[in-house]
Amino acid sequence: LFVVSVIWFRQPKETVENRIDSIADVLKPDPVSQAVISGAIDTESKTGQLFLVETNEDVGQARRGLKDDHYFFEIKSRLPEIDREVFYYNVWLVRKIPYGYFSLGEMVTNDDGDFVLTWESQDKNDYFGYTDIVITRQEFGGSEDPQIHIAEGEFGE
Fold it and tell me: CB pairs under 8 A, 24+ apart, for 54-62?
């Protein structure tokens, strides 16, 4: 029995080759996963609430939609005061699947002292997959990557 086992072990094994012709075949979602993704991410909501990361206090609201076939985004928030000579608040939109994010720019204050930002895309791309909102405190002259998270929100929450 030992000799048979050694002979069987030393025999060349058949190699099974599952070759994929294109990476697109792997990345293409099947109908089930697409339904799960579509149900888990709210790409239809037009408003989202913003909450401070440290205290979970409601500090504002964001709104999005289409204006002249272009995506627009508006935000108004009561954020903590900062030294405007050193820091600024920056707004980011985040997409969960596939993961991605981009900056909408620096927030300014309105006459009431609220931090606001209005952004409209220059192209006709669909940004509704970006459902998370992040506000960071950035340092002038520092890294352009997201720095300290101050407030977060999500469309549909």
Answer: 59/151, 60/114, 60/115, 60/151, 62/133, 62/153, 62/155
Residues 43-94 pLDDT 10s:
677 899 999 999 999 999 999 999 888 899 999 999 999 999 999 999 999 9
- Among 54, 73, 57, which residue's Cα sits nearest to residue 65? 73
Distance, in Å, from the CA atom of 126 to the CA atom of 103, rounded to the nearest integer, reads 16
CA distance 10 to 146: 56
The rounded distance, in Å, linking the Cα atoms of 13 and 29 is: 33
User: With a threshold of 0.85, does the pTM exceed it?
Assistant: no
The answer to whether the CB of 83 falls within 8 A of the CB of 119 is no
